[in-house]
Design brief:
heterodimer, B: alpha+beta, 18% strand, globular, Grx-like_ET (chain B), Glutaredoxin (chain B), Thioredoxin-like_sf (chain B), electron transfer activity (chain B)
Chain lengths: 110, 95
């Protein structure tokens, strides 16, 4: 799939929900391309910043957008990867702190 | 800043630098770029590209120093840094 096309598709779905792509376009496109790599590799768009097991059931909480996006954006203004962010984060109105891993370690299987 | 030898510190000064990374991770890529910009020698392993026993062995190594096994996990000398934390990385490099 074409990264630019996927970008536009995802943008249309997620912006109305209040999740914006990181304004750093180089970074965002790097992540979109990584999502395509994971889709080809695993059959689903596993989070590019987490180690996927390759088993869809085990990885279902980290299929992008992961289930941790909502609490991460609510608390830090950004998801773990800095792919989806709030408007305030993009506009530099809130500090851009490192987003710690929220996924419980027991969920991680390899 | 000068060290006790009266010379500028060499960031590569016999510090062993190891990066555990994912080939798809933006924070991992940013970490590698930062280390390259700092002109330090480092080793890295893209764990997502490993398979089988090699992958298991590396994951066990990472869990010993970062039980969450998140990426990047960076070792600089005897310091472990989890995540792309520019300030901490530079401090550990002595910059």
């Amino acid at each position: 799939m074409d990264a630019r096309k996927l970008y536009e598709q995802l943008r249309k779905i997620h912006e109305p929900k209040g999740y914006y792509f990181n304004r750093d376009e180089a970074r965002t496109m790097e992540l979109i391309e990584a999502l395509i790599v994971n889709k080809e590799r695993y059959g689903y768009m596993a989070c590019p910043c987490r180690l996927a097991s390759g088993d869809r059931e085990s990885d279902k909480d980290i299929i992008c957008p992961c289930v941790y996006r909502a609490p991460d954006v609510a608390e830090f203004g950004s998801c773990y990867c800095n792919l989806y962010v709030s408007k305030e984060w993009n506009e530099g109105k809130i500090p851009r702190d490192y987003v710690p891993e929220r996924r419980p370690p027991e969920k991680i299987v390899f | 800043m000068v060290n006790d030898k009266g010379t500028a510190p060499d960031p590569s000064d016999d510090k062993n630098i190891q990066v555990y990374s994912l080939s798809t991770c933006s924070h991992c890529k940013a970490t590698k770029r930062l280390l390259a910009e700092c002109t330090v020698q480092y080793d890295f392993v893209d764990v997502d590209l490993l398979e089988g026993d090699e992958r298991k062995a590396i994951i066990e190594d990472i869990k010993k120093i970062n039980p969450r096994c998140s990426f990047p996990t960076i070792i600089i000398g005897n310091k472990v840094i989890v995540g792309y934390k520019e300030k901490e990385i530079k401090e550990a490099l002595g910059m």
